[in-house]
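Before relying on records like the one below, remember that each one covers exactly one chain. Contacts with other chains, cofactors or solvent are not represented anywhere in the record.
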Amino acid sequence: MSYSSYGIIALLVYAIINRNILFDHDSGKATPAQRSYRGLILAIMSYLVTDILWGVLDQMGLHTLLYADTVVYYIAMASSVLLWTRYVIAYLDERDAFERALHWVGRCFFASVLLVSLANLRWPILFWFDEQGAYHAAVLRYVFLIVQIVMFMLTAVYTLVVARQPKGHEVLRHRAIGMFGIAMSAMVVAQYLYPLLPLYSAGLLLGGCVLHSFVMADEREEYLSTLEAALKRERESKEQLEEAIRMANTDPLTGVKSKRAFVGAESSIDELITGKEPLEFAIAVFDLNDLKHINDTLGHEQGDVYIISACRIICDLYDHSPVFRTGGDEFAAILEGRDYASRKSLLAELNKRMEANQSKGGVVVAAGMATYDPMQDDSFRSVFIRADKRMYQRKHALKNMAGALRSS
């Protein structure tokens, strides 16, 4: 069992450090290199399982099962080599003659091992077990080891040469892939010298940890950094858009909602009316008296002060409703909730204040109000028109009062 214990440790380490890759079902977003890496990990873990079973079966003296496991062992080892070459090709993505040659050599190596492993069932050209159950390697076993050494060294040298071109973290990742090839070459040589030791598994464990730490983990960190930067840009864009919308919906002089916001509110309420939603709202329309006279006699700066003062009066009174500046001297409020319930008293209070202001030469605001009636109103506009008409009636009444005051 001492032979198998190393394979068990290696298998557990692979399962732990590659858990995200092994159990990530969203493979559609994976790059070709990431998909190749996942296949490589599965092949290596399959090989480790056969290596673990080899030690167990040998210890138990189950020679028939040991023979079958050895056949699968060689096939799994060849598949790990094939998938290693595919991973290197996919990761570097150079698409040159060397990569094409490496691809075909990997496939030929796997096919050769598969055919020889099956042929070994009849002719012991790869390995055999003697009458005592002792394992013996045949000539082709050593030939395949030499081919593996050459393939691992070629991928290592090629990757390290290519690694001169990238910059930053990518150089480190290329070198880590090259070191995997060098480590595996060294372990295959050691396996050649000591065929009954789990040295190939040791090389896979060492190389797998290097790949995970310096390639996959580094790529993930870089991806997360890129994603975080993209999310930050998206948040900033969203904030800028929200600020632009807020500014577009805000009147720059008074700070209340703009004509654009009023149009948006009208559209939203029209949708509710069309959908036969139960609604309770009223519209109050306001217009400033004497603004043109102030602009002409005192200047536009004083006119702006007059507008701001009038707006403050409206907002203070209708403090539970959205107030909109719909024109130069025109305002509107959509009354809902508490202001809707108190709409008549609020209008009466405003009219009382305006009559007092008019007698003192203060700010004068004419107001008109209409309540939504589902029996006669099929749109927001129809309510607004009634409110606007009443506002103009009130405006004329205030002017008549002003004329009467001047005459007296």
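The two ends are 119 Å apart (CA to CA).
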